[in-house]
Amino acid sequence: MHWPDDVAARYRAAGYWRGETFGGLLRDLAARYGSRPALISPGLPGSPAARWTFRDLDERADRLAAGLHAAGIRHGDRVVLQLPNVPEFHQVCFALFRIGALPVFALPAHRSAEISYFCEFTEAAAYVCPDEEHKAYAPGTRAFTLADLAGLSAPSGTDPVEPPGPGPGPGDLAFLQLSGGSTGLPKLIPRTHDDYIYSFRASAEICELTPESVYLCALPAAHNFPMSSPGVFGALSAGAASVLAPDPSPGTCFPLIERERVTIAALVPPLALVWMDAAASGGHDLSSLEVLQVGGAKFSEEAAKRVGPELGCTLQQVFGMAEGLVNYTRLDDPEDVIVSTQGRPISPDDEILILDDEGNESDHGHLLTRGPYTIRGYWRADEHNRTAFTEDGFYRTGDIVRRAEGGYLVVEGRAKDQINRGGEKIAAEEVENHLLAHPAVRDASVVAVPDPYLGERTRAYLICRGEAPKKAELRAFLRDRGIAAFKIPDMFEFVDAFPQTAVGKVSKRHLRERT
Ligand code: OOB
């Protein structure tokens, strides 16, 4: 699952992997930027408005690490973490990093089906959640709410606390991130201290962050994009402040941009459209905004062209994946490159392999990649890894791309069985399995249909036993199974049979074209 020794040695020699850990990094940042703001939050239920300096974050991480350690959390333990955009999210991360326990990054939208699975599959030692209601999502796992965490932290003013034990090394796992997935159950992505720190430090450089920059975290902080591209971690590494927005709406974010003089923000395409429309009606001073990053799903060229004129800032397209590889358009790229490509890789050692359907190298086809921050295998998924990775360690992204001049990539489609609903990834098979649990459903096939706003929406085709259930009943059934709301199909269609491929499999291509 790890990089071969000779490859790891090469990444170290090249200076990508510097032998740092998250815990050590924060300590260094606190020494360097001590009283500068690190995390700014307008507050949410259970988390008061906050303005934490680098020193505050460092100390609070230590105090919580001591409390969690006293509560039995140990090196190597997994802890499912589900918090909204509040500074406690990062406090818990760094506390766990210092112990050497691994956060498992759940999204705020996840419900009992996802959370209970993460807890069981990772044999989690604990589940960190916003409030008492969430505890029901993880029966049998010890849960800590925001209020519990406050009680657990060693009081301020007490002596600095070091968690007992040696703590993690730079090559150890730091956390488990979730894959967008294309299989029945989500896969977990193991990231090491060394590889992840490289990815966000290099990202901060590409995004030209300085201690004067102010990053707006508007997407859920647990997602790889606002976490590390450059995200809050990248901002911290540059000595810059991050503003944690409770939600990504213009109504919430525009006043924050104005008040905190935000310089860079990250959005998925549908939100970029909403922001542009809202900016047109005026009312807020967005003049501090220098860069708007857009990624997670394809941003149309027409929309991309509007960003500069309508928001008065530079667009940066970001094409990344939690498994590793991240591509950026550079801030000084010519306008046509910025609006028509999804950027080029972070690292000179990101290897890009594009294969046509026959497996020959090409400038157009399936994207595979290997590099200093791309995983070599999912966590505890040997069988899946045999198909998701090549024998020589390339990750099959499932994306269809075209190589443009200068090594820039243009995303043209997808070969994986997934729906990208405005940046939220839905594995078709996962939803199909839930639908198949309904007594009236004989067979289910879930596909993406184009949508002008979200890019894609989800349509479920169903073959029923006897009378078809009402659509509202199917929705209620899926809700009762406890899946995240974004996975519930937007449309249901009842059919007598599915179109088939030459080899007798369901032809999703034909279903998609049926609209
Ligand atoms: C980001 O990460 P994930 O893991 O949620 O999703 C990765 C997948 C990619 O394989 C691709 O299918 C799609 O999301 N994607 C894009 C895209 N950015 C991601 N498709 C077209 N255009 C783009 N700009 O989504 C993610 C992780 C780090 C940074 C940015 C996005």
Automatic annotation (TrEMBL):
Record's Pfam families? AMP-binding, AMP-binding_C
Q: Which InterPro entries match?
A: AMP-bd_C, AMP-bd_C_sf, AMP-binding_CS, AMP-dep_synth/lig_dom, ATP-dep_AMP-bd_enzyme
Superkingdom field: Bacteria
Entries under PROSITE patterns matching the protein: AMP_BINDING
Q: Where is the AMP-binding enzyme C-terminal domain?
A: 430-505
Keyword annotations of the record: Ligase
Family stated for the protein in its record: Belongs to the ATP-dependent AMP-binding enzyme family.
Protein name from the UniProt record = 2,3-dihydroxybenzoate-AMP ligase
Q: Give the originating organism.
A: Planomonospora parontospora
